[in-house]
Specification:
Shape: globular
Strand content: 15-25%
Largest sheet: 8 strands, mixed
CATH superfamily: Vaccinia Virus protein VP39
Number of helices: 7
Order of helices and strands: EHEHEHEHEHEHEHE
Strand order of the largest sheet: 1-4-3-2-5-6-8-7
Number of domains: 1
Number of strands: 8
Helix content: 25-40%
Amino acid sequence: MQQELLTEEDNLVSIIKNKGKKFLKIELKIGINYGERLVKIGHNNPSVLYIGIEIKKDNITQALYQVQEKKMDNILLINGEAFSILKKIKLNHFISQVHLYFPTPKKSAFPSLYSKGLEYHQRLVNKSFITELERLLQDGGIFRFATDHEEYYFYTIELFNLENWIAIDWSPLNIELKKNHLVGSFCEKKFVDEIDGATTYHFRVIKL
């Protein structure tokens, strides 16, 4: 059966439950751009079901084309705003790992995306997002985060209550990466390759 593009209007709970039965674990990637890295990770880890969320329709449509062309069965693609989609997935403690790299503010903040006055609470990662993350992740589940924004990095890491989370060492992804790259995303490539001395701020935390 050919892979189709999903939205938050679909019965995501039923689709994920039925699809997830075939795999050892489920991971979530928020922001997949054109899907190149997600497809490579999915190819290298066939026992894992990857759920990719992307807000830009043109980008995720290209990702879907790659998934269909390679006949990949372990990737589900959902088009829409991540936080809204997470709230619609009424399944608890079923995700083993969440990947979020170089995030931008959520949809409601788009008009002021490049404004210096953009508040951190308008961005995707805030207290409400952490609450959803704690609901979705299994005990022992991992959240991976990387950004080019130093202040946003410190704001984000301070949201993780030490009673519920513990920081662990960063580990590389199971894909080939260029020198000085941590995740191999489109945004990282643009940032690291085009800015001399660029620093990527990153952390990995495990849910207790």
